Amino acid sequence: MKSFLNYLLDNLMVFIAATSLLVAYFASYRYQKREQKKQKAYLLAQYYMKYLIPRQRFIKNVLFQIELLDHIENFYKEATNYNKEELESLLGHDKIKFINEKLENEVKYPLLKKAVFGYCEKDNLFIEKLLNFPEDPEFKYFSTFQRFIYDTLNELEIVSMAFVNELADEKFVYQPLHSKFLINIRYLCFFIALNNPADENEYQKIQELHKIWRKRRDEHRDAVRKLKNEILNHPSNDPSTPP
Asked: Which of 109-116's residues contact partners 24+ apart within 8 Å by CB, and which partners?
């Protein structure tokens, strides 16, 4: 009987030791995965800051100079899905035609040259042509600018996909990135919707990340607003209340 008890105790100790090792292994594995996701998020944030923000600033400068920002932001305020059908429903055919014609007629070399001032991605062929060379009559500046917008959106989609699919920790970089990301979608949303039929759902990850970060920002703002109201309405702040 004693030997049987010893056998049980020995096996129990082996089981406890093995379980402890497994728990330690999985804890270490989870920690490493979290750290890897943070590292990936950090590298993506660096790329976003260095390359995508200057690109988006350049696009915004162009739209500002031809006075289209307000028209596009009116769509952003009411849109939810950023597709072609919604764009036509909210802006109407005539307004979309007006925006497209204004882009085609006014996005010329002098305006682009002015808008690109301070751009940092010098190895981009389009940007290099604007920064370092005189106007080229054979070069299609407007169509190249359009490609530049959609190249930027394609890269933004890849970054968003890494965050939405949890390949990188979006919460780790939320604070430094979210306001810049949300502001830029205010005018990029028009170009997302322009060639995006509802059944194709192009740039889905950009839209998903936008919804996640916009909701989190709005919830934070509501919480701060509520806290401020509670402080202001506290009896201690009432001048008629005796000390």
From this structure: 109/135, 109/136, 109/139, 109/141, 110/135, 111/62, 111/65, 111/66, 112/62, 112/141, 112/145, 114/61, 114/65, 115/58, 115/61, 115/62, 115/65, 116/58, 116/61
Domain count, the chain: 1
CB 88 within 8 A of CB 97: no
Helices (H) and strands (E) in the chain, counts: 10, 0
pTM (predicted TM-score): 0.81
Domain that holds residue 144: 41-217
Q: Is residue 9 part of a domain?
A: no
Can you tell me the distance from the alpha carbon of 56 to that of 184, in angstroms, rounded to the nearest whole number? 7
- Asked if 120 and 54 count as a contact pair (C-beta separation under 8 A), the reply is yes
Tens digits of pLDDT across the chain (243 residues): 556 556 555 565 665 665 665 566 555 656 577 889 999 999 999 999 988 988 898 999 999 999 999 999 889 988 888 999 999 999 999 999 999 999 999 999 999 988 887 676 666 778 888 888 888 888 888 999 999 999 999 999 999 999 999 999 999 999 999 999 999 999 999 999 998 888 888 899 999 999 999 999 999 999 988 888 877 776 766 555 555
- Whether 30 maps to a domain, the answer reads no
The distance from CA 44 to its chain's CA centroid, rounded to whole angstroms, is 11
Name the phi and psi angles at 170, rounded to 5.
Answer: -70, -30
User: Cα–Cα distance between 160 and 215 in angstroms, integer?
Assistant: 16
